[in-house]
Design the sequence.
């Protein structure tokens, strides 16, 4: 019989090892490839942060264990201490790796790839070949990034934001080839991100199962949809900014170099006529939407987990979707709030301040809806739920400190201090990574067909929650006291000396935080191979992926399901007396009349 | 995957064409944003120093290239029309003609580049030529990308991959090609066809390219 619908098409199943695991078109395999690669980069980026913290707490002293081995190489000085340039390189690479090679590929590449087709009842994404291509662009870009560590003069050192003229001139501390490699890597990974986002958009718009209306889409998929809009329309701006910077560096154009620019004692020797602030505009036009790429998908993950473990429908489903959509629209018009002290016209600063403060509204709606979902729920405090609830708590702290910085007069004072470090890490570690831990624990049974250890999960949650807050909360105080960020040694400033006990305390907490992650790594890797076999639906979830047996077959659904109800119909009267959930695809019983408004 | 083509009904092809065209439109959306970054930067530079960022280019060559690319859009559209009729021979002819016109475009472009280099005008010479090489360079890369796609399509067409039901690669390449054409029209308008404020820029480029911005900002 001839196939008439794209959704019915079953992709030929690969037989040999290479096509099954390496060059695979299967969205589940590609999701796993993203997962493993980005987790490796997470270890790398985390280790860089440990070195950073060592230098901040004990400036100029030999790094334990590796300092003596790596004297005068990489980031280290003659005594095995972190050199000033090395410190800047560490900070730059930590930021770039975490944002572009850990968080985005982890929450979009891994979770998006694995979950979207399962959530919408499709056999694969719309363009499986492009999907494979997007991973195989991401991996070489990651390797380019990694290669930057080994070239002459080391990797980029101009901060993750790479502001010119510092990032632009060969004589500046931003090194030579390393910076070019980093820009090339960002260009490639950006391309991978655009291709992936476009693929997800087409998939979600066109391949939803019958009956899966927009109003029934799980919030994970809604969040991925909105993120994909950001990826498709904002990432090209990063490519534009990066290309112009590369032109400046390689062909000595002067897009970002004014006439007669100096760096240190060096005259640029360029024709000039460009604008350093122009780079910031183009960069933040991408990078502000990008910070929503870093948080929106995890809002989706947390929503699913919180609804499932509260045994209640999500509170205010429509408000959740509308708030995410308004974050998207507002996200495109707030980039200037990063530039209050960059020499931008103050009247523009006012406009950006107002649009930024408006984002507190949809964010607040989301927080209250999560709390509303928890309210009077039949809460099951499993490990994924602990992570998800911590996500909400940390997001509140990170979101509130964001409002302080959105306000221009306050930001002028706390700009480029540890306050911004605290804010950013509360959002991207506290919120995003907690939701990622939750999501990994929650969907682990579907991804690997095995369960993770619950006790180890809870221990890891408790230690991470404790040490995370101990490490990052004091940074608010340091920032308010005026402690600058990107400062290789604080000993040169008298007023900072009083803060060195805090810095030492933060460093010790950060080390403990780092060590706590070993528990998760052990639990994760052990469970992949030796965890107990998972049932198809271990958490009594009602979305479509839990109706599929473990391990998930290559074509996902033997028969494309029909959807009859929303994604979170927990404890509804339709469930019957014995269970408190009903799968989206279960046919309603004869004569069942859904309550009005459904 | 196309070796399963005999199992797929015409409705399947119609739906998949729809999917792929949608994907291409989204990709073009991101391409628009990519070029917007450059055009936006160019507009900012122009509004800050009008004369310095407006150097004369050869209008005749630019106009010729515009004509060539617009014609290639026509030949591409004809290739799409014939592929939808299942007319393999005509599809191949028009694809080949599109490819040839793209070659002509690149040849004219390289003549233009060559004359700049002969006068020692490089991307680093001044900010205008920085933008000029940046935008025409990326546009040229897009043309080359399109040419690779055209060559593959021509070969696949000759092999008999396409018929009146399955021809979406030709159609979505057509979408892309029209976009490349459109970008060029913007480039031509913004770089070649503008009104000079007198002949000052001629003088400036001949005397002092490096200080173009400083000297121009002092003249109204």
Sequence:
């Amino acid at each position: 019989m001839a196939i008439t619908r794209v959704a019915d098409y079953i992709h030929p199943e690969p037989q040999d090892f290479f096509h099954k695991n390496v060059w695979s078109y299967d969205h589940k395999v590609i999701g796993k490839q993203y997962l493993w690669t980005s987790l490796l980069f997470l270890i790398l980026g985390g280790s860089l942060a440990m070195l950073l913290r060592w230098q901040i707490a004990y400036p100029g002293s030999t790094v334990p264990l590796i300092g003596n081995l790596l004297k005068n190489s990489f980031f280290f000085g003659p005594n095995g201490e972190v050199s000033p340039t090395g410190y800047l390189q560490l900070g730059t690479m930590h930021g770039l790796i975490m944002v572009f090679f850990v968080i985005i590929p982890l929450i979009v590449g891994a979770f998006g790839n694995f979950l979207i087709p399962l959530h919408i009842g499709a056999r694969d994404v719309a363009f499986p070949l492009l999907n494979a291509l997007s991973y195989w662009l991401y991996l070489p870009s990651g390797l380019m990034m990694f290669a930057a560590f080994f070239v002459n003069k080391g990797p980029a050192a101009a901060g993750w934001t790479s502001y010119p003229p510092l990032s632009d001139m060969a004589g500046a501390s931003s090194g030579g080839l390393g910076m070019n490699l980093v820009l090339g890597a960002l260009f490639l990974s950006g391309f991978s991100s655009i291709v992936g986002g476009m693929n997800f958009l087409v998939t979600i718009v066109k391949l939803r199962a019958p009956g899966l209306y927009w109003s029934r889409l799980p919030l994970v998929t809604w969040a991925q949809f909105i993120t994909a809009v950001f990826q498709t329309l904002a990432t090209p701006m990063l490519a534009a900014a990066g290309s112009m910077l590369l032109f400046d560096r390689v062909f000595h154009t002067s897009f970002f170099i004014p006439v007669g620019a100096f760096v240190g004692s060096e005259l640029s020797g360029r024709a000039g006529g460009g604008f350093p602030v122009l780079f910031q505009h183009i960069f933040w036009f991408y990078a502000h939407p990008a910070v929503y790429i870093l948080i929106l998908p995890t809002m989706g993950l947390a929503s699913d987990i919180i609804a499932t473990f509260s045994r209640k429908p999500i509170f205010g489903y429509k408000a959740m979707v509308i708030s995410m959509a308004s974050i998207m629209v507002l996200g495109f018009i707030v980039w200037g709030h990063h530039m209050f002290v960059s020499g931008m016209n103050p009247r523009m600063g006012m406009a950006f301040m107002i649009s930024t403060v408006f984002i507190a509204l949809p964010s607040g709606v989301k927080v209250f809806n999560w709390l509303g979902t928890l309210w009077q729920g039949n809460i099951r405090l499993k490990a994924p739920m602990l992570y998800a609830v911590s996500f909400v708590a940390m997001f509140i702290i990170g979101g509130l400190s964001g409002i302080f910085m959105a306000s221009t007069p306050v930001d002028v004072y706390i700009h480029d201090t540890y306050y911004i470090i605290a804010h950013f890490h509360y959002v991207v570690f506290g919120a995003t990574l907690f939701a990622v831990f939750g999501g990994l624990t929650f969907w682990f049974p579907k991804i690997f067909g095995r369960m993770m250890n619950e006790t180890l999960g809870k221990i890891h949650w408790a230690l991470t929650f404790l040490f995370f807050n101990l490490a990052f909360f004091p940074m608010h105080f340091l920032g308010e006291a005026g402690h600058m960020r990107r400062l290789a040694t604080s000993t040169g400033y008298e007023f900072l000396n009083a803060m060195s006990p805090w810095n030492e305390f933060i460093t010790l907490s950060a080390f403990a935080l780092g060590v706590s992650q070993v528990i998760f790594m052990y639990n994760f890797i052990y469970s992949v191979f030796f965890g107990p076999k998972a049932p198809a639906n271990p958490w009594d979830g009602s979305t479509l992926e839990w109706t599929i047996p473990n391990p998930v077959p290559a074509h996902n659904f033997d028969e494309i399901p029909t959807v009859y109800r929303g994604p979170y119909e927990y404890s509804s009267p339709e469930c019957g007396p014995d269970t408190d959930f009903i799968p989206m695809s279960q046919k309603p019983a004869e004569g069942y009349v859904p309550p009005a408004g459904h | 995957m196309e070796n399963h083509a005999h199992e797929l009904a015409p409705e399947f092809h119609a739906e998949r064409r729809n999917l792929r065209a949608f994907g291409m439109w989204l990709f073009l959306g991101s391409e628009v944003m990519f070029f917007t970054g450059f055009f936006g930067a160019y507009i900012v530079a122009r509004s800050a120093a009008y004369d310095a960022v407006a150097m004369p280019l050869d209008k005749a060559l630019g106009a010729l290239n515009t004509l060539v690319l617009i014609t290639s859009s026509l030949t591409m559209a004809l290739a799409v029309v014939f592929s939808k009729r299942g007319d393999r021979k005509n599809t191949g002819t028009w694809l080949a003609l599109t490819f040839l016109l793209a070659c002509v475009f690149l040849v004219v472009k390289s003549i233009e580049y060559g004359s700049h280099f002969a006068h020692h005008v490089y991307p680093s010479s001044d900010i205008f030529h920085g933008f000029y090489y940046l935008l025409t360079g990326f546009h040229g890369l897009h043309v080359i990308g399109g040419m690779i796609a055209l060559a593959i399509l021509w070969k696949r067409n000759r092999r008999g991959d396409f018929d009146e039901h399955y021809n979406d690669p030709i159609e979505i390449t057509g979408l892309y090609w029209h976009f490349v054409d459109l970008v060029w029209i913007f480039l031509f308008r913004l770089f070649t066809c503008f009104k000079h404020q007198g002949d000052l820029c001629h003088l400036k480029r001949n005397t002092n390219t490096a200080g173009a911005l400083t000297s121009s900002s002092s003249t109204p």
